[in-house]
Automatic annotation (TrEMBL):
It comes from Massilia cavernae. This is diguanylate cyclase. The lineage of its organism: Bacteria, Pseudomonadati, Pseudomonadota, Betaproteobacteria, Burkholderiales. SMART domains: GGDEF. PANTHER family: DIGUANYLATE CYCLASE DGCM-RELATED (PTHR45138:SF9), REGULATORY COMPONENTS OF SENSORY TRANSDUCTION SYSTEM (PTHR45138). Residues 271-400 form the GGDEF domain.
Amino acid sequence: MIFPRTNLFPGQRACSDQMRSLDVFTLMFMTAFTCVGMSMIMFSVHRSFRSEVQGVGHWAWGQLAMVLAVLMLALRGTLPDVLSVPASNAALLWGIGLSMIGTQLFYGQAASWRLFHIVWGSCFIGILWWLLVTPDFAMRVALYSCAELVLHLVQLRLVVRYGERHFTSYFFFALLLVQAALVLIRGVAALVSDGASVDLLKSSALATSYLAISNLVILLLSVAFLVLASRRLQLVLEQRSTHDPLTGILNRRGFGEFFGRKQIHARQGDWPLAILALDLDHFKAVNDRYGHAMGDRVLQHVATLVQQALRERDRVARFGGEEFVALLPGTSAKDAIPVALRIQAALRDAVSELPSCTLSIGIASQSSELEDLDSLLARADAALYRAKAEGRNRIVLADEAVLRCVAG
Ligand SMILES: Nc1nc2c(ncn2[C@@H]2O[C@H](COP(=O)(O)OP(=O)(O)OP(=O)(O)O)[C@@H](O)[C@H]2O)c(=O)[nH]1
């Protein structure tokens, strides 16, 4: 679909390169329509995953504001300049500013509404000044470019600082960089020339290239927003499927995946793998006496303490209820004993207002590098069962060795 430029922009005349100009303006309208569609998808993502992926709603509003800016630009010549020029510039800055706020929220940062209002407000006043009081097109372009550049730079900084090392972030960064470079070139060109070369409604190589590239970038940006949001969702869902929501540590599934990775290392020499099966003693009494909410806090507290007592390469998981399992790569059953003692000591010595608890621990380590998780767990569980039967608050090795807890 081609939009005849003379109808939409009455101020412009057909010229020898009209086909080239028509393509650019067609691209503008196609970009606008596509952005409306993309923002609808973003609104639906925002509604469904508001707490998981923040900022998508602002990105969607930003895209709509940019569409509004394109419409305002299209009405130049129909509406008086005093209306269409400030309105289209303000709408564009609102769009980019809302995108900036969206990006800040997406990366878990506070929204800079103050900066947003200062940038668009001061730019709006400047544009009115150089439109009505001292008409100067070049100054208007330079001022607008400067304002837009600030908003892009804020986003670029955020991506560098908080962006995941992943294709989606590189893609987003590249688009922001192109946008920043474009406005910088246009702003500088406006100052060094008389401004005519950067007038988007006049046919010039610079203006045509600027319009074509910036529309393409805006279109790709809406794709980038959705790609970023879906990548975040993927990570959130992965995290949910492998982690325990109460304590934040691995769940049984996540532990199984971790074990699988470590078993490969074990076969390559980091052998054996040791497992600690840990179970809180008389936890039912804690729930009964202090309530379920307090019981939950105790479980969170224990999970943190156990993780802290382990080495960096070890992991603890919650298998359900008050039962935890820790995996210690490259550790024999004998070497796992001091770790189990350290965990019990950490729990005993912790300064906390929570009710005190003790842990029974069963230890098993691989009898061969081929021994799988189920077999190892079964032996650790059997040892744990014996620790409970022996009177609790004990450490029992799967090979029958029983140690009295230092806590006594
Ligand atoms: N607060 C809280 N309690 C839980 C959760 N999951 C399981 N429980 C409680 O954990 C308690 C487990 O009780 P039991 O299996 O009898 O174990 P215990 O009281 O620790 O006794 P021993 O293990 O034999 O020392 C039950 O009261 C469950 O309701 C949870 O997510 N939060």
